[in-house]
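Memo to structure team: turn this sequence into structure tokens by end of day. - J.P.
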Amino acid sequence: MKRGILLVNLGTPDSTAVRDVRRYLGEFLMDRHVVDVPWLLRKLIVSGFILPTRPKQSAHAYSQIWDAAGPGTGSPLLHYSRQLKEAVSAELESPVELAMRYGSPSIDDAVNALHADGVDQLLLVALYPQYAASTVGTTIEAVTAAAGERMKVVALAPFYDYPAYVEAQADLIARHLPADYDHLLLSYHGLPERHLTQADPTGSHCLKRADCCQTASEAHATCYRHQVFATSALLAERLDIQPDRYSVTFQSRLGRLPWLTPYTDVTLAELPGRGVKNLAVACPAFVADNLETVEEIGISGQETFLEAGGEAFTLIPCLNSDPAWVHALASLTVQSDSQQAAEPNAVSV
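Reply from structure team:
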């Protein structure tokens, strides 16, 4: 069988125009894994309450980061994802394509390109270190549907604790960490709490006890919160950072449902009062810089911290196309060839 590799990231609007942002948000928010309510209610929420106002606000935010990677580069997430695809392709013999779960380049187009190249076994690499149904789960579903009967699809499992990934992420942080920093904030994308409980195969572990993420359970294979804490602990160990010098928080909450805490924006406002004046922030849930890292943290988050009395703020970039990350990702795809489906880093769909 001829193998091909499909890298998939979240997505981005085609431009900062309100119409393009509205189209992108509509596709994103109508995903049942993102807004997990019945279709009719989801349609009412998205079309009736979000899309009338949110696209204009989001378009302004996108305009602040467009071309952040350089003149003419457009969306940083798409720019860096393309760089990553080219760099990984150079290290592998298998054909590699890039797609976005929402927007362009589409999953259908990428799968069709691989099929036209003779690929009949597809290794899906969802570019999220930690598992969530709203990221990894929906990507597997969409790619499997696009492949149909034409290809066997194998999905790479979340790589949150893969040594080469952790080392690449830790080395990147170390290179950008100020010598006199007071505190390192590890900010991860947030999730509604019910996404965790719905993903819990036991139905009785996640968020049922204070130490659920530290108590061994089969639920951890699909528990975003556990995997976030595991990544953070491995990074702190690799960087030799004591527990009182780093924090884990969750950003980008939407709506009124309970989301994972502590919240990043609240913590940024509180840290100066705790004596943290020189803050560094890294975002290990993202492998490519995007709206949530560059604007939400680098612009809005920095403003929140400085207005609360902070003095110095350092946003550590995402892995993007860092050579160590490229090598780690390439090694993951090669390793998947020799693994059984039940092992940690290669899972058959």
